Amino acid sequence: MVCDRCQVGRAQIQRLRRNSRLCKECFFVEFESEVHETIEEYGLFRRGERVAVAISGGKDSVVLAHVLKTLNERYAYGLELFLLAIDEGIHGYRDDSLAAVRRNSDELGLPLCVLSYADLYDGWTMDRVVSQIGRSNNCTFCGVFRRQALDRGARLGGADKLATGHNADDMAETVFLNLVRGDSARLRRSADVMTFEAEHEARQTTATVEWVPRVKPFLFMYEKEIVMYAYWKRLDYFATECVYAPQAFRAFARDLVKELEACAHARLWIRSGQRRSSENMQPMGRLWIPRPLHNDAHDAVTLAVKLCAKRVCC
Ligand SMILES: Nc1ncnc2c1ncn2[C@@H]1O[C@H](COP(=O)(O)OP(=O)(O)OP(=O)(O)O)[C@@H](O)[C@H]1O
């Protein structure tokens, strides 16, 4: 079967969003163009800005670093990029992924800044936190520490923006997590392409904190396609899951999204990546859903809440 775009190469991937069948080269072109469109449409960067790319060594952030460098050169954004990694102090996980981060920094020729929880939080590594509080809830601590660490790292590095590798799948999970937690403030901004996290926290604590806006250039990109990009480009990333992650509440949300996707209707609206797929879309909050399924989507949210409640209660 030939590629729908160039009509020459052998089709090797069926795009989830547009349903087109593409060869590898055309897939790279479309993927990169879609990230560029997001950057342009939402005005994520301004010429001359210094951008911290948050890199964990996982596939999303490694692909993000490569794509941002490529687009910065191709479209002459005029950005000054550097990599920012946080060492949470998780033995057998973060030490290995940081090795991948260092190799990417060398390959891309981008400077790297590494900050550790141990240095920032008076010797408190995640291994030490888990030894004190056990495994349940440790991801909540880690998430709060990491958000602050990234913010501090970005400010230390003089960044105007902090770019993270959050993708459409992460967004869908986050929407459900915030729904279940009843965190309406976070729910409202969980699908934003640009957020001001520290500003929100500062408002709640009345502390004066300088903040660095966060941007998510991959918010409309599917995880599966990010994996294919990394695989076909032979990028050097670390694939193992965090040793503490299986206990995470987020894992419930991930399973839930998969369960919902098993219903044909839900699959159509659950990810923000559908946003641009058709003119027949309409917004429900920040999610875009096909018009004929608007009512079904409300049913799906109800179903999601019931499923979550069931899981949380069990
Ligand atoms: N230790 C870290 N250092 C720097 N950035 C991080 C770190 N952990 C997460 N991030 C940023 O937050 C984003 C989402 O975090 P998540 O926990 O989903 O990442 P991951 O699964 O470790 O790896 P990735 O998302 O890169 O595949 C990452 O893409 C990255 O930009």
TrEMBL record:
Alphabetized GO MF terms: ATP binding; transferase activity; tRNA binding
One Pfam family recorded for the sequence: ATP_bind_3
Domain tRNA(Ile)-lysidine/2-thiocytidine synthase N-terminal: 51-254
Assigned keywords, A-Z: ATP-binding, Nucleotide-binding, Transferase
InterPro entries xrefs: CTU1-like_ATP-bd, Rossmann-like_a/b/a_fold, TilS/TtcA_N, tRNA_thiolation_TtcA_Ctu1, UPF0021_CS
SUPFAM superfamilies tied to this protein: Adenine nucleotide alpha hydrolases-like (SSF52402)
GO biological process, one term: tRNA wobble position uridine thiolation
Residues annotated as binding ATP: 54-56, 60, 86, 165, 170
Coiled-coil segments on the chain, per record: none
Gene Ontology terms: cellular component: cytosolic tRNA wobble base thiouridylase complex; mitochondrion
Identification of the protein by name: Nucleotidyltransferase
Species, as recorded: Cyanidiococcus yangmingshanensis
Name of encoding gene: NCS6
